[in-house]
Structure formats: structure tokens, C-alpha cells
């Protein structure tokens, strides 16, 4: 665990330092686009945070190649270098879009290319579907599913990037939960190089988000832009595939390990990677349905995302961000507790996770309500003397 803490601190430190450097350069040379109608901020702000995040990630990836503690991650260097290559492509395309507003088809095409690099060249694929012993036997199905998942998550994360600190904080919470899940999985059941790479990616993501968040907190000095959001989506999807999509069938079908005799336990490895990006996926799905229903491109911008609706309800920027944090923490932590309940030594005890989910959702619904409705007080009428 000390090695992971070291990775978190170094990645976070590098990201913080380079965020300051990128911010100073952007402000000196005026590298910030004009404010758009759908934007929430009022002052011109650089959108180059993704560059700093990538440099922080790249710095620790290179450093880790020289550290014996992370030697298992580099047993398949093609996987690591393909991730870095795809990430670099997304950062370049994201920066170009933030500065010159690229056509959505160009961005989508670049996303598929990046996903293809990770899947085809890096071998990061969904080889097993964790439903009993069901296996993805067709290579083209495995490749297609993996590419599609990566592209969807990248766009989902990018779609919620609309408030100061929203994406960085949500991804920080979600990846903290996923790191805990994958670290326990590797410790107890599957100490393969693939799973260790997934844990490694998760902790590096935590460092990137933590190092950048001080610059992105309201009022933000810098945004991560498309470069940062697409980078986070790419790495989150890749880590989930590496950990969950490679679990061997004999592990998934062993009732002594996961309590597979119960239905919920059979779906835990699938549910948890999904719920950590549940909020972005919901916003992405609603946006696609809404825009296509209006006869528009699913990638045409508008001001009807979930965070926009929160502002329209009367929430301040910070309050809206905290509400999203709360939903992310409640849903992801509840499923993590359910996962713990399926492990050996605590079989079938889902109730802590279920109770946490129910109570947490009730609390989140209350804080999501319009502030005026939550704070409205009944003023007693004055008694009229006759």
C-alpha cells in the first residue's frame, strides 16, 4: 500500500506543479477561448488543464518503469505504451478543440482511433463477461465491445464537464472507490499483471484529479477542457476493462469466493465499474435522447445538462457540485459494501450496502430539491383579536 501512496503523492505533485506552469503560460499568452452562451463562468479561463494532467501521468509512468515495486505493471509494456499513445492523441485533439472548436465528427473519429490503439495494440479487451462462466469467445465481439465502451465513457465524462471542480471531484471519488475494489480483488484473488495494471491506473488517476482540483475549484483558475475530460474517460474505462474484463471464469464461478449462489453476488463485478461512471452515463444518455429527439446531432451542444438543470433549480455552483459528489459517493460506496459482503468470510451480507444506499439516496434526494423548497418555513398566522 505504501507503493500506491507513493504513486498518488508523486502523480498529484507533478500534476499540481505543471498545472501552475500551464496556467501561467496560458495567461501570459492569452490561450483562453471566448466565453460561449452555454458556459457558466463569466471570465475568460484557460482550458488547458488536461495538458498538465497528462504530463503528471506521463511523468509517473516513466518513473514507475525504473521502480522494482511496479515491475509487474511493465511485464506487458505494450499495454502501458498504448495507453500513453492513446492518451496523447486525446490530449492533442482535446486541446485543438478547446482552442479552435473542431467538428464533432473529427473528435468522435479520434476517439475511436484512440480506443482502437488501446484495445488492438495494447490488448486491453473484455475477454470474459462475469456472468457465471460465460466467455466472450469471438475476438471481433471482444474488440468491438471494448472500443464501444471506451468511447462511451470518454464522452460521458466529457458531457458533465460544466461546473468548477465537477469532473475532477466526481472522478476522484469514483476512482477512490474503484481503487479500493480492485486492490482488494488483487490482494485476495487475482494477482496477475493485468489486474495490477488496473490498480496502477486507478491510483494514478487519483493523483491526477487531486493535483488538478485546487486549480479547478470554484472560482476556477483553469479548466481541464476536452483534453482532460477525454483523458480521464479513457483511463477510467481502460482500468475497468483491465480489472473486470479479465477475471478468469473459474474465479467468477466459485461460490466459495464470491457467494455466487446469490443473484446479486454474480453481478457485483459488473455493477461496480458501471456505477462509478453512473452519473456521467445518465447525463450522456439523456443528452443523446434529447438531441436526437429534436432532430439534432447527439453531440450538438446545449444548456440542458444535469448541472445546468441544477443551477436552474436555484443551486449555487458549489452546492450543485457537492450534490453530484454526494450522489457519486453514495451509489459507488454502497455497491462497494455489497461487494465486500460477497467475499469469503462475510458471505451474503448485503444489508450494510443496501441500508447505506437507501439512506444515502433519501439524503441525496433531499439535498437535490430546489433550495427554496427545502428551506421554506411555515410562518404562523397572527391571531386576530375580535
Automatic annotation (TrEMBL):
GO terms for molecular function: metal ion binding; phosphotransferase activity, for other substituted phosphate groups. Its main location: membrane. The chain crosses the membrane at residues 6-27, 48-74, 80-100, 112-131, 137-159, 166-186, 198-217, 229-247, 267-289, 319-341, 353-372. GO terms for cellular component: plasma membrane. CDD domains: GT_WecA_like. It is found in: Cell membrane. The keyword Cytoplasm does not apply. This is Undecaprenyl/decaprenyl-phosphate alpha-N-acetylglucosaminyl 1-phosphate transferase. It comes from Microbacterium oleivorans.
